[in-house]
Design a protein that fits this description.
The protein has 3 domains: 99 residues, no CATH class; 65 residues, no CATH class; 74 residues, Arc Repressor Mutant, subunit A. Helices cover 30% and strands 24% of the residues. The protein contains 8 helices and 8 strands, in the order αβαβαββββααααββα. The chain has a 4-stranded antiparallel sheet with strand order 3-4-5-6. Strands 1-2 form a two-stranded parallel ribbon. Helix 5 packs across helix 7.
Length: 255
């Protein structure tokens, strides 16, 4: 059963975790698995307040026990990339501390992994690799294609911190130098060009518009407004040689 947005409120509020599950119990539904995605959306609490989180999860635990069901809550990661994996779970620490089993799911080197983040009731079982694939279901009357299925590829040795570690990319300084060199290459003829054309060439090389504009400012690229209605902005490289200076007023690039 999928909870609708009207559970627990009259103004299309997110369903109250307690009210929604309690309603199922009262109706005598045979619930064996509760999936709350994300879990914080199903509780009218501040997800950053530890006491509120723990109280709500305690209530969920009691309701799941009464139903004879397992409760699976899904959470997201914060953007604090300088912290360890256990501190990357969004919201209060109680989301991780109160739960008996915590797993981290992520993608690394082209493979998805399920990794034990924290467990209170069993030993750490390490990681498991898997991929997602499409399957076809057929009951003899109806065929449904494109059903996602999990394909397991066995145990791995990744830790949560391994899964959170990204391959080192270029440093900010290296990236800036590369973009500046690219601007020089694009404008090497020394003629006035429309910045939109420069940015288009840079985009083909995988650089963001704002990064190209900042690089142009650092390089001191000359800028002018060509007369017109409205005026057309133009760029060209500064500090050119006498040879390059010939014909610099020309615009060879289509606007």
């Amino acid at each position: 059963m999928r909870f609708s947005g009207k559970f627990g409120g009259s103004k299309m509020e997110k369903p109250s975790l307690v009210a929604a599950i309690g309603k199922l119990a009262i109706a005598g539904k045979q619930v064996r698995l509760l999936i709350l995605d994300p879990v914080s959306d199903y509780a009218r609490i501040s997800k950053d307040k530890d006491d509120e989180v723990r109280a709500t999860l305690n209530t969920l635990k009691g309701l799941a026990k009464d139903l004879g069901a397992a409760a699976l809550g899904i959470n997201h990661l914060n953007k604090k990339t300088d912290q360890g994996a256990v501190h990357r779970v969004s919201g209060a620490r109680g989301w991780v501390s109160y739960a008996r089993l915590n797993f981290l799911v992520g993608l690394k080197d082209g493979m998805r992994h399920l990794v034990t983040l924290k467990t209170n009731i069993t030993k750490n079982v390490g990681s498991f690799a898997f991929t997602l694939a499409d399957a076809v279901a057929n009951d003899g009357n109806l065929t449904i294609a494109g059903i996602p299925v999990v394909r397991w590829h066995g145990k791995g040795e990744l830790t949560p911190d391994d899964l959170m570690t990204r391959a080192p990319g270029p440093s900010k300084a290296e990236d800036q130098n590369e973009i500046e060199a690219g601007n020089k290459d694009i404008l090497k003829d020394g003629k006035w060009c429309a910045p939109e054309w420069v940015i288009k060439q840079a985009d083909d090389r995988g650089w963001q518009k704002r990064s190209v504009q900042r690089a142009a400012d650092r390089m001191g690229i000359e800028k002018m407004d060509r007369p017109g209605k409205p005026p057309v902005k133009m760029w060209r490289l500064p500090f050119v040689t006498a040879e390059q200076n010939e014909g610099r007023a020309e615009v060879d690039i289509p606007l």
